[in-house]
Give the backbone structure.
Amino acid sequence: MPEQAVPDYSFIKQQLETGRVIPFLGSAASLVGQSGSAKTPDDVLTAKGASVIEAKAAQNDNDQSSDLQQATSDSNVPTSAKQINPQGDEIFEFAQRHIPPSAAELARWLAHKTALPKDEVFDLATVAQYLKAVGGSGPLYIKLHEIFSRDYPATPLHEYLAAVAANVPLLVITTNYDDIIERAFQEVPHDVVVHICDPKLGDNVFLKHHRKVDGSWADSEPEKVIPNKLKKVDLAKTSVIYKMHGAVDKRKPDRDQYVIAEDDYIDFLTRMTKNTAIPAIFTEAFQSRHFLFLGYGLRDWNLRVILNRIQDNLGSSSDFTSWAIQYKPTLLESRFWIKRDVQLFDLDLMDFVQRLKAA
């Protein structure tokens, strides 16, 4: 991709604000504009527990003002952060920053005080698979709930999407487990569709409605629904947030769903081949809208396979150009986007959001 290539901000904004774009949010989307955060996700846990991306983030942290240092002092760290990081260990710094962890940070935290070899490289799916094998999904889910049940602040990206959704229904897809996007949409009527990965609950999704009731916004109780029978969802009238890899449930932790371990991804891909993963109601939207990929790094094979499946078998149309915003993509990632006919732009997400809003 030529260095001078820049997005057509005016066109993307016009398409987004008329409901013709599907924002597809990855892990870095939850870090946009947050102090001390990396600019792109990293999925690899290195031998010393510090990825190249996070080394850059650490340098950025050193350059922050005294205001940031004060904001992350012990007196300002939330209680839940102290529970996550009781001794102030550097590898758990994300808890003090009060932002969601990157994949590498989460992998390190999950691997802490386990027998995993310290001199090997692990991605998040491998670490999660190890914990499931050693202790079962229960202890793993408890750890994940501790992280993702926190009220992380909405980013400028989430706030902008909420402002758009206040005027036109959007279909937003995210692989993030946190509830930042739902809370950003707090004053926007929307439906939330959550992928269920618990085999005891079958090949279903959770569906809940967010509406104003007696003057106050409230969520309905989640109901278990067959993905291809979402009759209560109308994309033309109401925004929909699709949590493709599950989500935390703050009200009832035993409803938490996480596609995170290797076997979770295998099960998800198996359901995709049976057309029992992604709801059929989304197919028409996939055929008639642009995708805007925000916050994704594609080092992880499972995400590449899932995106391949969406484009090849679920109706993504070459008649509608898709875009990806990724900071400093690798050669492998760049080639993947090009192969999928997705226009890739090497940009910081915060810069992209600011320029898009200003267009």
About this structure: The longest strand covers residues 205-213. The chain has two domains: 9-34+154-358, 44-148.
